[in-house]
Amino acid sequence: MILYDYWRSSAAYRVRIALNLKGIPYQSVPVNLIKEGGQQHSADYAALNPNELVPVLVDGEVTLNQSLTIIDYLDEHYAGPQLTPSEGKQRYLVKALAQDIAIDIHPINNLRVIQQLNHRFDIDERNKVHWMQHWINTGFAALEQKLAPIRGIYCVGYEVSLVDVCLVPQVYNALRFGVDMSAYPNIDEIAGRLNELDAFQRAAPDNQNDAT
Ligand SMILES: N[C@@H](CCC(=O)N[C@@H](CS)C(=O)NCC(=O)O)C(=O)O
C-alpha cells in the first residue's frame, strides 16, 4: 500500500488516520506541495493524478484519488473499524457531516485557491488569513450547531466515524490560521479527545517524516 502524501495536506491526513485506525501498514511517498513550484505539478505525478492533488493511494492494481472515496474503499475491502456505517440512518448522517467539512469547508481554502488569490488579486498575508478564517468559521458555526444535539464522545455517538477523521485535520488547519476555537466548544472538545488516540497522533502532520 503506497500513499502519495504531504505532511500538511488535510486530505492526506484523513487517509493516514483511516489507515492507522484500520491497522493497515503503508508506505508514505511525500509529494512536496511547495518545493520546486509544487511537486504535484511534476510530469510524473500528473501522470498518476491529472488533478495534481494529493492524496493518491495505490493498493496493488488499484489507484485511487479523493480521500473520501479512498476511505470508502478501505471500509469495503479491509477489516477494522467501519468509518461509515454500512446501513441505517447513521450512514447518511455520517456522510453528510463529513462532506460538510471535506466538500464545503476544505476546498475553498486549498493551496491553489490561495495561490490564485495571490497571483490575480495580490492579496496580502493579512487578507489571506482573513479568507481562511472566514470560511472555516462559516463551516464550523454550522457544524457546531449540528453536532450539539447528536454528539456523543465523538461527533456521531460513541464510535469514531468518518466525521471525526475529517474533523481533526480541519481543526489542525483552523489552529494553524488562528481561528478562535472557544466559539466551538463541541468541536474543540471532540477534537481534543480524538487527538489523544494513537491512530490520530501517528497521522498528525508534525509526526510525518517529511514535516519541515
Ligand atoms: N477532494 C480532494 C482534495 C485533494 C486536495 O485538495 N489536496 C490538496 C492538499 S489538502 C492539494 O494537493 N493541494 C495542492 C494544490 O493546491 O496545488 C480529496 O479529498 O482528496
From TrEMBL:
One Pfam entry name: GST_N_3
Single GO cellular component term: cytoplasm
Recorded coiled-coil stretches: none
UniProt EC number: 5.2.1.2
Top-level taxon in the UniProt lineage: Bacteria
Keywords of this entry: Isomerase
Entries under InterPro entries matching the protein: Glutathione-S-Trfase_C-like, Glutathione-S-Trfase_C_sf, Glutathione_S-Trfase, Glutathione_S-Trfase_N, GST_Zeta, GST_Zeta_C, GST_Zeta_N, Thioredoxin-like_sf
GST N-terminal domain location: 1-82
Keyword Nucleotidyltransferase among UniProt keywords: no
Ranges where the GST C-terminal domain occurs: 87-212
Enzyme class: isomerase
Single GO biological process annotation from the record: glutathione metabolic process
GO molecular function, one term: maleylacetoacetate isomerase activity
Family (UniProt): Belongs to the GST superfamily. Zeta family.
Protein name, as recorded: Maleylacetoacetate isomerase
